[in-house]
Amino acid sequence: MAGLFANARFIVAALALALIVGVAAPAGAQQRNSDNSVNPTASAVKEDQLLNALKSGPGGGDSISGRVSIPDQKSGNLIQPAGQAWRAFHEGALHWLAAIAILGMLAVLVVFYLMRGMVKLENGRSGRSIVRFNAFERGVHWMTAGCFIVLAITGLNISFGKSLLLPLFGADAFAAWSQWGKYAHNYLSFPFTLGVVLMLLMWVANNIPNGVDIAWIKRGGGIVGNDHPPAYKFNAGQKVIYWIVVLGGGCVATTGYFLMFPFYGTDIAGMQLAQVIHATVAVLFIAAMIAHIYIGSIGMDGFSRSRPAAA
Amino acid sequence: MARMKFLCDADRCIECNACVTACKNEHEVPWGINRRRVVTINDGKPGERSVSMACMHCTDAPCAAVCPVNCFYTTADAVVLHSKDLCIGCGYCFYACPFGAPQYPKVGNFGSRGKMDKCTFCAGGPEADHSKEEYEKYGSNRLAEGKLPLCAEMCSTKSLLAGDGDIIAQIYKERVVRRGYGSGAWGWKTAYKESIAT
């Protein structure tokens, strides 16, 4: 009786084994061709499938990647098609954006100046002057402004120098100029960023938008027409410039540092995105600053004689 | 003139990394820079394939298109080379390259990455062929000696092919016909806007 029971257990175990093998077998059979020869590529990864998987959605990631046995693990990215999109932006959309924003702003200002001319003081000078910004504030402004001008020129050089300056300079001189431009761009970013942070701290309390600004805008702010609406320390237009500097400057600084320190906290997709944001914000920033420079110079009386005149 | 291309037959690559080692030795590539590497996809899973990848010397090369100082040029053999004298180390070619080919001697250091380095198809650089300057900057110039890139020449399974695009494509097609399978010419669609039917 005990023997029969042992036999039964053996038979059950054998059947179970046969079942497992039988279930597993069809999976193995799929690896064979119709003539029962082995097809080693039946499950092989195909580039087309992987590229299609990248296109099909966010789950696909942005590159075909695998394992590498060299220390540089980043090189495990085999193909990253996103580079083509970045190239299209940098060599296409960015050129149009910059041309429209910067040349457009210059054109608008020229037309405005021809129509409106310099906004004069209504009753001339009173003979007295007041200190609106102390020496420290003025120093911060000009440190930031000086850095901005160098950063803008060297930044535009990276994107447009090869079209505009390279034919004039020649390859060697242009490369040397661009090399120094890159150093200036990288190192002057630090005082620029410091200046933006100091401006944020110094003037944020005077730049919170309020009801007076709405009234100021409704009356054309003195730019449109000859009205002279009241404002606190900064009028609405100055507040707009302030927030462009603080937010735009913060944006270009953040994205710029991601580019300056490659692979610290980003991967290649992150750096492409950072460059797109950096370039887009920067050209709009430059256009806005051209308007700021216009109003601060030939657009408004008082620029050249801002200090109390002796006579 | 030939139109030089690389083709890695992933069904033959055994991930021995000899191409990587040969390249480093032939050109005395500095520590930390890999002009060529072998990437294994689906490692340890069914259908695993290894692909040896370097600069593919693209038609309409993205690196050349985005370079701010136009330091890239294409030779008569359609090899994409660059001038380290002009390169400012901005990193733009690395953002644009589909294959991660551009390498930099420094990783951080306030964006001063140093002069970009990449596969030259063993064709040196703009300096005079076989000059000391050319060797120090770009490595040896085998093409000028009438030889093909060393990585492909010493590949033990002849997985990696280098040479005229039409000829290596024909070799690959014959292989696919004979053995009855092939996982395709990796990177060709991206680099050359064409692929080899398998």
Describe this structure in words.
The complex is a heterodimer of chains A (311) and B (198). Chain A is mainly α. Chain A has helices at 2-29, 47-56, 82-116, 135-164, 166-169, 171-203, 211-218, 236-260, 268-296, and strands at 64-65, 77-79. Chain A has a domain at 89-124 and 131-296: Fumarate Reductase Cytochrome B subunit (Up-down Bundle), CATH 1.20.950. Chain A has a two-stranded antiparallel ribbon with strand order 1-2. Chain B is an alpha+beta fold. The radius of gyration of chain B is 17 Å and the shape is globular. The interface between A and B is large, with 62 and 61 residues.
Entry summary:
The complex is a heterodimer of chains A (311) and B (198). Helices cover 65% and strands 2% of the residues of chain A. With 311 residues, chain A is mostly helical.
List the helices and strands and how they pair.
The complex is a heterodimer of chains A (311) and B (198).
Chain A: H1 2-29, H2 47-56, E1 64-65, E2 77-79, H3 82-116, H4 135-164, H5 166-169, H6 171-203, H7 211-218, H8 236-260, H9 268-296
Antiparallel strand pairs in A: 1-2
Helix pairs in contact in A: 3-9, 4-6, 6-8, 8-9
Chain B: E1 4-8, H1 18-27, E2 37-41, E3 49-53, H2 62-66, E4 72-74, E5 80-82, H3 92-96, H4 132-138, H5 150-153, E6 160-164, H6 165-179, H7 188-192
Antiparallel strand pairs in B: 1-6, 2-3, 4-5
List keywords for this structure.
heterodimer; A: about 300 residues; mainly alpha; Fumarate Reductase Cytochrome B subunit; two-stranded antiparallel sheet; 9 helices; elongated; B: alpha+beta; two-stranded antiparallel ribbon; about 15% strand
The CATH top-level class label of chain B: Alpha Beta
Portion in beta strands of chain A: under 5%
Helical/strand content category of chain A? mainly alpha
User: What is the N-to-C succession of helices and strands of chain B?
Assistant: EHEEHEEHHHEHH
Main sheet record of chain B: 2 strands, antiparallel
The CATH architecture of the domain at 89-124 and 131-296 in chain A can be named as Up-down Bundle
Mind describing the biggest β-sheet of chain A? 2 strands, antiparallel
